[in-house]
TrEMBL record:
Annotated protein name in UniProt: AB hydrolase-1 domain-containing protein
Ranges of residues in domain AB hydrolase-1: 29-271
Organism: Enterococcus pallens ATCC BAA-351
Highest rank taxon of the organism: Bacteria
Pfam families: Abhydrolase_6
Length: 277
């Protein structure tokens, strides 16, 4: 199976970094996948295909995702952020960066700006989570059993998930890429690291909440996804409250599902271009 990007070594494990470089003076956009997105590089393809016409774009696949190996390292926010930074360094991709984070990766993007403010020029939220969104979230007691059952069914589930994914339904992937996405999803869906991330998410959110809200330009692209609203009924309000102290925050609301970057990539790309310029 052809690897779309390059493998770099981080903490003795291979991590996959996909990079589209352009002759542009703007900061590099770093796409960070949400929890459970088994094949981030192809999940993000509709968006990076559009953005790479004007900007340098990287996709860093965390351990246990895409073509990256799994790791025994804990899934706390500090470890995951350092893995991302080291992967970019090993791939010889220089900052400053604009992390464009989907869902749970919003925590990493915000923490990155808190801890290394000189590296982060702005933040783009692709229906990203903010730390306060996790205050009321608790794992069900049957979570472990559900994961075990789902893991047994991951191969047939992977085929159905890929077939119904917007990138396939809308013709964004070649046949070869569709086949690769099926194989990677079957391999990585509910990987050890994916499951561990869920166990760590509450403490990661608490650590991010303890820091100050970043005072840099922020673009929050929000969906009206029913799943989000069921889990966090005040999804949009929580974001507006978290960034209330940052006068450089812009909000764009889209009528679509949680995967805004693959469901409405043109609208998302236009919003990002307007934001950066």
């Amino acid at each position: 199976m052809k690897i779309p990007g390059k493998l770099v070594t981080v903490n003795q494990q291979k991590m996959h970094v996909f990079y589209q470089e352009t002759d542009c003076s703007q900061p590099t956009i770093v796409l960070l996948a949400g929890s459970g997105t088994a094949c981030p590089t192809y999940d993000f393809k509709p968006l990076w295909r559009l953005l790479s016409k004007h900007y340098s774009v990287a996709v860093v696949e965390r351990p246990g995702y895409g073509w990256s190996e799994t790791t025994e390292q804990p899934r706390d926010i500090d470890t995951m952020l350092e893995e991302t930074r080291e992967a970019l360094k090993q791939a010889k991709i220089k900052g400053p960066f604009v992390p464009a984070a989907h869902s749970m990766s919003g925590l990493e993007a915000i923490y990155w700006a808190q801890k290394y403010s000189e590296e982060v020029a702005a933040i783009i939220g692709l229906d990203m989570a903010v730390p306060t969104a996790y205050e009321q979230l608790k794992l069900p007691k049957t979570f472990g059993l559900t994961v075990s059952i789902a893991h047994l069914l991951r191969r047939p589930a992977a085929s159905l998930m890929v077939k119904s994914h917007p990138v396939v339904k809308n013709g964004w992937l070649t046949k070869e890429e569709q086949t690769a996405m099926k194989q990677i999803t079957a391999q990585q869906l509910l990987s050890k690291n994916m499951v561990d991330e869920i166990h760590y998410v509450q403490s990661n959110a608490e650590k991010t909440t303890a820091g100050k809200c970043p005072q840099i330009p922020v673009l929050c692209i929000l969906s009206n996804d029913k799943g989000n609203l069921k889990t966090v009924p005040r999804w949009g309000a929580v974001h507006r409250e978290y960034f209330a102290g940052n006068q450089q925050t812009e909000f764009v609301e889209l009528a679509c599902g949680h995967y805004v970057h693959s469901e409405q990539p043109e609208q998302v790309a236009k919003a990002i271009e307007a934001f950066i310029h």
